Amino acid sequence: MGTLYIVATPIGNLGDITLRALEILKSVDFILCEDTRVTKKLLDRYEIQTPTISYHEHSKLNKTEKIVELLEAGKNLALVSDAGTPGISDPGGKLIEYVRSWTPHIKIVPVPGASAVTAAASIAGISMDKFVFMGFPPAKKKRKKFFEEVVSSKYPVIFYESPHRIMKSLAELAEISAGAQVVVCRELTKKFETIYRGTVEEVLQKLKSEKIRGEFVVVVDK
Length: 222
Description:
The chain is of the alpha/beta class. The chain has eight helices and ten strands.
């Protein structure tokens, strides 16, 4: 039987990859990736020639079954996301669940590394002994419920947001608790990395005067 490696990759700065991750990516038979074009940039940087297979949230069941067939045939595979650790608010989690459900004898090995969640938690400046991670807010329905849960949480909450909805999300959060303290991280590890701190309303005002781009991680502390 083959082995499925869950490999963390950089969230921005391509230098943030472990030596072990590079060894695994070079040695496996195939690399499963969300977007082959994104992964190719990383592979080219480190001169890795391993062939890739596309696997993303829209992949059909027959693709998943083919991946399991490869593992059962003795092929070693590495699963990567476009950025960070696979399975964390990421379609890779479905593949791992499928493999565990249908072929529990296949070995699944974590190869840890970069994660936007822990990166944001590490610089939050508040007690993160316990915190809640809530992924991305719903795109349409149940958004108010989502932010009510954020504000009512006993512990600090971390969630992700896209550049297209960050202003809307912060505005909705402000409607529920304008005085909530937040740390909003933009473009973590990249050239234009920026950390905004203050109340939700204060950070909203700061962002209104800037061009919104890049992915965001938000830490909320009442």
